[in-house]
Write a structure and sequence with these properties.
single chain, mainly alpha, elongated
């Protein structure tokens, strides 16, 4: 029953945030836009160096293994399918989610936790400021947009950058490699990747905000809630990944 209540709280938080997104008040939009841009800067732009390094290394490993081993078993023409299935469908969204959870998710939980302990959120509530509107919704929108862009960026760097670096080990020309990938890549694959980005971003933001706001009066609660937020984010995102994959490809 505890998990049902937990999931219900998360869904309520997502609903309230999406409802606030449609708020027509110009002042609210300007304030929220500033927070969204800062969240995108921290979650998306600042994460590009580490995402580039991880994507490049993953691309080198997978493309080198596929390009050197598949021809030995007479499946050299399947390299495009292997790249699409392993990188674009699965590893891109999942590894991006892991980085975002460890880097930005933990930061959101810690920030909101210290704001709660420092009575900042209580002060906002006493002034009539809606926490969902000015704290949760902007972070959720920034997280979603960043997750989508980072996932697509990861896929591009892993496939193209990985091939360029691993070229000395491959006998496949770049034109043939690119053609194989494009023939294996479908609109459904791109839609599934984008859908995972949206769901992962929504889940991570909602979970981390929920745990950050759950801190009450002690500084020792902050690391505890941060740990719970990270673990629950990974669990729920993996469940969402399975559901999307099974729905789309079975």
């Amino acid at each position: 029953m505890a998990w049902y209540a937990y999931v219900a709280d998360l869904m309520a938080l997502v609903y309230l945030s999406l409802r606030e997104l449609a708020n027509p008040v110009a002042r609210v939009r300007r304030t929220a836009s500033g927070v969204i841009l800062r969240q995108i800067l921290f979650t998306g732009v600042d994460a590009l160096p580490v995402m580039s390094a991880i994507a490049l290394m993953v691309g080198i490993i997978i493309i080198t293994q596929a390009g050197t081993q598949l021809p030995k078993v007479g499946a050299g023409d399947q390299i495009g399918t292997i790249i699409v299935v392993t990188v674009i469908r699965e590893l891109g969204p999942l590894l991006t989610m892991f980085v975002v959870v460890g880097r930005s998710g933990s930061a959101i939980t810690t920030e909101l936790g210290y704001m709660r302990v420092g009575q900042e959120i209580t002060a906002l509530e006493l002034m009539g400021v809606q926490v969902t509107r000015f704290i949760v919704m902007p972070r959720m929108m920034g997280m979603i947009l960043s997750m989508i862009c980072l996932t697509l960026y990861f896929d591009t760097v892993a496939v193209l950058g990985g091939f360029v670096v691993a070229k000395f080990k491959l006998t496949v020309p770049f034109a043939a490699f690119a053609k194989a990938v494009m023939q294996s890549l479908s609109v459904r694959d791109l839609a599934v990747t984008a859908t995972k980005g949206v769901l992962f971003g929504t889940a991570v933001a909602a979970i981390c905000c929920h745990h950050g706001l759950s801190v009450r009066s002690s500084f020792t609660e902050v690391p505890q809630q941060t740990t719970r937020a990270m673990i629950n984010s990974l669990k729920i995102c993996l469940v969402l990944d399975i559901l999307v994959t099974v729905t789309a490809y079975f």
